[in-house]
Design brief:
324 residues; mainly beta; 11-stranded antiparallel beta sheet; 1% helix
């Protein structure tokens, strides 16, 4: 169970250099096809705070094609995670803990985010068997190894404004945020997929998979955790599967199938409509996609994020052999 105090730092007294605490917040603006996000990593063991802020509006495999990018990896650690301001212009303040957040950011070139993030459910604790039928204390079952030793996902309603390089947009969307804390060594990170589909306040789906990027079809993704939020009810998934259609390494579409605790099957088909190579750690490339989703049995479309972590140090040089 996630408690109000879990919005605060969880720094151990004997904190190691590779301890990490993360938050991810995002928005969608469908008509101009924009998705933007704020990702932070607290490295208490070395006293550094990472702030990674980006916005995209199209499909590209080059980071320079983002419509906005501000990544700083060595900001000073704030005293509080629940109420802080950084030198880069980002401030975060919580309320109604652990559900609600105010994100304010004043960046460069007339860029400003003002997001009111309201959790519309209890945070989904992947270690709590009362929520997740696949809950486990074994980090090897988390989908992302020790980095998800403690982790929750939460469907949120975000309102406010987003201004990017002088162009202003109203924000009113349902999306996902997450929060993690635990050992997060940058060497040999696990491959994983973090994928969601949101159709409104009444229906959203979130899933975590481990990922073998070289496997084919349904074998590439191994389901770890997930839920559907249906008319205010959180339904944990008992099983799940996914496959991607790819252009080279990048996904162009997905099919996902899940069975929840009520034995209802959720089937979703998605097409990527914006995409970005996101190196949120120096030795990985997350293929981050904004996906337009269709849910079988439901009219209309939803939106969501797909994040696939591909690990440079695990995958680089696999075809190299000494003396050849």
């Amino acid at each position: 169970m996630i408690r109000p105090e879990d919005v605060r730092f969880h720094t151990p007294s004997d904190v190691s250099y590779d301890w990490g605490e993360t938050n991810f917040f995002s928005i969608y603006i469908p008509e101009p096809n924009i998705t933007a996000w704020v990702y932070t990593i607290a490295r208490a063991g070395v006293g550094a705070f990472v702030s990674d802020i980006r916005a995209i509006n199209g499909i590209s495999h080059h980071a320079m094609d983002a419509i906005y990018l501000d990544c700083q990896q060595h900001l000073p650690m704030p005293a509080k995670l629940e109420d802080y301001s950084l030198p880069n212009g980002l401030s975060v303040k919580t309320s109604n803990e652990p559900r609600d957040y105010h994100i304010h950011y004043v960046g460069i070139d007339d860029t400003e985010f003002d997001w009111h993030v309201k959790g519309i459910m209890e945070p989904f604790d992947i270690s709590d068997p009362s929520m997740d039928p696949l809950a486990s204390k074994d980090p090897n079952q988390s989908g992302f190894g020790a980095a998800y030793s403690n982790h929750f996902d939460m469907t949120t309603h975000v309102t406010g404004t987003t201004k990017i390089r002088g162009r202003s947009f109203e924000v009113d969307c349902v999306t996902l945020m997450d929060h993690s804390w635990g050992p997060r060594n940058e060497r040999l990170m696990s491959g994983m997929g973090w994928i969601n589909a949101v159709f409104g306040l009444d229906y959203s789906v979130q899933a975590i998979f481990s990922l073998d990027p070289w496997a084919k079809g349904w074998e590439a993704f191994k389901f770890a955790h997930g839920y559907a939020l249906v008319d205010g009810r959180v339904c944990g998934f008992k099983s799940g599967m996914a496959r991607a259609i790819r252009h080279g390494q990048f996904p162009v579409g997905y099919e996902m199938r899940f069975v929840d605790i009520n034995d209802f099957e959720h089937v979703l088909i998605g097409t990527t409509i914006a995409q970005h190579p996101w190196s949120c750690y120096s030795n990985i490339e997350a293929k981050l996609s904004m996906v337009e989703w269709h849910a079988v049995g439901r009219k209309g479309f939803g939106y969501g994020h797909s994040q696939e972590n591909w690990q440079f140090d695990r995958l680089a040089g696999l075809d190299f052999r000494a003396g050849r």
